[in-house]
């Protein structure tokens, strides 16, 4: 009996040996949301609940070969980017995505949950100038907003101007994540044509939040691959990651991961 394939989503990101973020979080999220996850590995990290002890980039030709292997044979309905590490890898991925027919979700990863750098300082401008123009959606947290625009957001009212500054660099949509502000976890989805949508969720008293950014971006990509319009895709992804944060569990001696399988346990 023939079985049709589910929607296909490609993640271009680094590996997290602890399993909480990066490629591992992306693929767990995609499985949980009913899409087929595929991967292009950009870097290998030595990482656990305490932080990132080191990382090693893959050669640009390895990244290019992985991408072409998957896209030219299997095809994609959405792409998500995460840790890209260096100027060379950012440029390589930007070139590959220049003619990508599917939606592209760019998570402009700058540092880990523990504050360890995952993007070379000199690569920030390359992300802004070369990668963001190919993004259907960019999903920066407030630290990444400051890195990319120089704007420090201290309250919700400053999130729209920050989003506009990012939109000026070319993405169709920007999701400014306000999780580092006090109060509710409020995120702003802003569009190039003036659209504005707010998404709010309770803030849970749970320190085990490793992988939230990767998980949210991957969930949005999964929903886009299934055909949802952007606001609906973000709403569904926000609901999924909120449940994953609520279910986050202790692992090791530091910050544990969110629970990607929370729906199967509740």
From TrEMBL:
Catalytic activity, EC: 2.7.1.49, 2.7.4.7
One Gene Ontology biological process: thiamine biosynthetic process
GO CC terms, sorted: cytosol
Pathway membership: Cofactor biosynthesis; thiamine diphosphate biosynthesis; 4-amino-2-methyl-5-diphosphomethylpyrimidine from 5-amino-1-(5-phospho-D-ribosyl)imidazole: step 3/3
Root EC class: transferase
GO molecular function: ATP binding; hydroxymethylpyrimidine kinase activity; phosphomethylpyrimidine kinase activity
Pyridoxamine kinase/Phosphomethylpyrimidine kinase domain location: 16-259
InterPro entries reported for this sequence: HMP/HMP-P_kinase_dom, PM/HMP-P_kinase-1, Ribokinase-like
SUPFAM superfamilies tied to this protein: Ribokinase-like (SSF53613)
Catalytic activity: 4-amino-5-hydroxymethyl-2-methylpyrimidine + ATP = 4-amino-2-methyl-5-(phosphooxymethyl)pyrimidine + ADP + H(+); 4-amino-2-methyl-5-(phosphooxymethyl)pyrimidine + ATP = 4-amino-2-methyl-5-(diphosphooxymethyl)pyrimidine + ADP
Function: Catalyzes the phosphorylation of hydroxymethylpyrimidine phosphate (HMP-P) to HMP-PP, and of HMP to HMP-P.
Protein name listed in UniProt: Bifunctional hydroxymethylpyrimidine kinase/phosphomethylpyrimidine kinase
Organism this protein belongs to: Kitasatospora acidiphila
